[in-house]
Amino acid sequence: MKKGYLNNVMVNIGFGNVVSASRVISIVTLGSAPIKRLREEARKAGKLIDATEGRRTRSIIITDSDHVILSALQAETITQRFISDKDDKE
């Protein structure tokens, strides 16, 4: 694997929305109370980004800039896209 390959990789998180792979800290589902609090805190701080295109939120992407991105795709689907992009770079 090339060192720093994530620096230029953009990952589709659904409906034409992309995120820089190097900025993503975590991809989580929204079932737990701490994640719900994180979502509300991001909303209050103006750091919530809704990329669901009006669809049901199925996963939350947390970035290194403390932004919280809502996605209509399952966490597993987004994770698979990260893995697929990594394999393409090798």
What is the C-alpha radius of gyration, as a whole number of Å? 13 Å
Distance between the termini: 5 Å
Shape descriptor reads globular
Q: Main β-sheet, in a few words? A: 4 strands, mixed
Structural class: alpha+beta
Number of strands: 6
- Strand adjacency order, main sheet: 3-5-6-4
Listing every helix as H and every strand as E from the N terminus to the C terminus, the arrangement reads EEEHEEEH
On the 0-100 scale, what is the average pLDDT?
89
Which regions contain 5 or more consecutive residues with pLDDT less than 50? none
Secondary structure: helix percent: 25-40%
Number of domains: 1
Q: Number of helical segments?
A: 2
Strand content: 25-35%
Task: Give the structure's gist in a few sentences.
The chain has helices at residues 33-45, 75-89, and strands spanning 10-14, 17-20, 24-28, 48-50, 59-63, 68-71. By secondary structure, it is an alpha+beta fold.
